[in-house]
Amino acid sequence: MKFKISSETLHFETGVSEINDKLKDEGPSDFFKPKVYGDPDFRIFAVLSCMPPEFEAKRRRQFSKKENVLRLDIGLDFSEMTNASEKQKKDIVAEEMLEQIPQALRKCRNLHFDVDAFSEDLRSWFQGHNWLSKPN
User: Fold this and answer.
1) How would you write the pLDDT of the chain (136 residues) with one tens digit per residue?
2) Where are the beta strands (DSSP E) in the chain?
3) Distance, CA of 17 to CA of 126 (rounded, Å)
4) What 3-state DSSP class applies to 73?
5) Which secondary structure element, helix H or strand E, spans residue 13, and what is its range?
6) Which of 81, 94, 101 is nearest to 131 (CA)?
7) What is the pLDDT of residue 26?
8) In the chain, what is the greatest distance between 2 CA atoms, to the nearest angstrom?
9) pTM for the whole structure
């Protein structure tokens, strides 16, 4: 399975770009590459989105059966991210991804995908890389 993460923010002080870089460096994409939760060609493309309230737009979530991909924004609170330490930012991103990705997957019609197994693996990856302070 392909699992890609990107970021979108207008303000460097949120640290979202740096957190995204750390995610890329630490390799959840590599971890998920050999995993199969249903269709082996299924892809998830998540965008860490952190905008000030005046720029906040509707969060995107699109499932394309034809392309076999789920694209979604992971909404992050601007104020919370701006004021958080690096460790807190990692916790916030991990918790939001663990909440928002499974929710989006469950809303996809006709998707044959083991959401629970994926969620467990995602939680395990975050815990194994010290991105979560609290257990389940």
Assistant:
1) 999 999 887 778 888 989 999 888 887 888 999 999 998 899 999 999 988 888 766 778 999 999 999 999 999 999 999 999 999 999 999 999 999 999 999 999 888 899 999 999 999 999 999 999 866 5
2) 2-9, 43-50, 61-64, 69-75
3) 18
4) strand
5) none
6) 94
7) 86
8) 41
9) 0.91
Q: Spell 107-123 as b/e; 16+ CB within 10 A means b.
A: ebeebebebeebbebbb
Distance CA 39, CA 100 (A): 21
Beta carbons of 112 and 39 less than 8 angstroms apart:
yes
Which token pair is 70? 């789920």
C-alpha dihedral over 27, 46, 83, 79, to 10 degrees?
180
Q: Which residue has the tokens 């991103």?
A: 93
Q: Amino acid identity of 106?
A: R
Locus of tokens 């019609």: 109
